[in-house]
Amino acid sequence: MKKIEEFKDFFADLSKKQKITYISLIVTAFILTESILFWAVTSPAMKGLFEWVNYVRTVVYLICLIGLIFPVIAGIIIFINQKKTPSKKPIKFLMILAIFSLIIPIGFYGYTISIPFQRDGDKPPQLLLLNGSGINGVPNMAVSFWTEDRTTSTINWGPTESMGTKSNELTKSHTHSYLLEDLLPNITYFYQVNNVGQIYNFTTMPNLPNTFKFMTSSDPHFGAENANRTVTDEILKQLIDPSNGYQSFFMLGDMVEYGLFDSQYKEACDTFSPVTSHIPFRPVIGNHDILLGGPTFWEDYFSPDLIEDAPRDYFHIEINGIQIFVLDLEWGTESYTKEQKTWFETELEESTDPDDWILVMSHCFYYASGYLVDGSDWWDHQEMIDTFEPIFVDNGIDMVFSGHNHIFERLENNGVNYNIVGGFGGHPDTDFEKEDDVIGQTGTGSIYYSTDMFGFLEVDIQGDDAYLAFRTPENQTVYNYTITRL
Ligand SMILES: [Fe+2]
Ligand SMILES: [Fe+2]
């Protein structure tokens, strides 16, 4: 009893200010460190990383453990002080530990907040496909670019070289996006930025029902040391070659290796722009693109906020009666929000007919062949299959395109055709079939599978038939097939 009294006296001797400082420091250190776990399991960007990557899980658990130390040590100090003469030393030790541990969450959150401000210079124009289509059946597009300085910019655009339509910005901004709507079919349009320099041009799709020829490829991973930039350049050459006749390009994600580095987005934008300022372009967001501040860069460069009430991260693009849905599925269903689900199901219900060609594009795959990485199996993604296959089957989705695995694959399941096109330059996946020490599995319904090549997929829809060809960067067909709309 005497010791307890001494302990009470010890606390009584502390000033009110000291008591508040000690208690608030311990509580803050505990809450801030534990909030990293909360953030890791609730934010769509981190949730996937936390679930799929072992070392991320380990780091987050370690930080949480540090947070849990405070209440434990505080308990031990109280216990010790009850047993022997009270001393300030343990409390001082706890305070030093609390201050030291605060460096982790404060540094982490501070860095995350600062990422959108760490830019690497101007980003040149992109011609982006947006939601919806205009009165002439040509999809809405935008010209978008980003400037280091806040400026008011202008574009002149129109169907003749003298252009004619002038769009001025009224307020200064870093992001510059101009909506091109109600475009006419089969017309070459011209545009110029700020009345100087290059005059860009692009040709709209002819208004022929159920015809559309496009290229798709995925996972260039700009910034990755083991990526192959030569093949990315070669594929872009095929894209802009008029003799190939591509009317659009869909890039299915993992544009950059680490979405938190604007230098990687800068390299991607600079590489794409000479081609994608002329060919209508729809990049799809991937798991690498969203790391930490990545979504801010992505929205600034590829998802302009130009159409009222239209979502910015997922799209319904209609071209010549062909319905194309671009979904935001990065690691899997973590980013399939209630809003996106409602939007997708409503759009399918209200804006499509089962007789239409209906295409779905996303970064994450559904069925796929793959191998064990970091303790996680990168083949048939059961959560994605369970969530989306019933929707695909019920709504007559014809073709599905994705990346994420750096392979080429064609699969067929329950009347739905799936394609994986991860050959745009990111390091090819290990072929589990050829490596004895690699655990892997063939995807359900796999018909063609290759990890031996880079390249792209050409899709040419002509009436009831779609011709698909997996091609190398040099434009050699390695596998092709036809599907017929039922
Ligand atoms: Fe990737
Ligand atoms: Fe990925």
UniProtKB/TrEMBL annotation:
It holds the Pfam family Metallophos. InterPro entries: Calcineurin-like_PHP, Metallo-depent_PP-like, Purple_acid_Pase-like_N, STPP_CPPED1. GO terms for molecular function: acid phosphatase activity; metal ion binding. Residues 213-407 form the Calcineurin-like phosphoesterase domain. The chain crosses the membrane at residues 20-40, 60-81, 93-111. Keywords: Membrane, Signal, Transmembrane, Transmembrane helix. PANTHER family: METALLOPHOSPHOESTERASE, CALCINEURIN SUPERFAMILY, SERINE_THREONINE-PROTEIN PHOSPHATASE CPPED1. This is Metallophosphoesterase. It comes from Promethearchaeum syntrophicum. The lineage of its organism: Archaea, Promethearchaeati, Promethearchaeota, Promethearchaeia, Promethearchaeales.
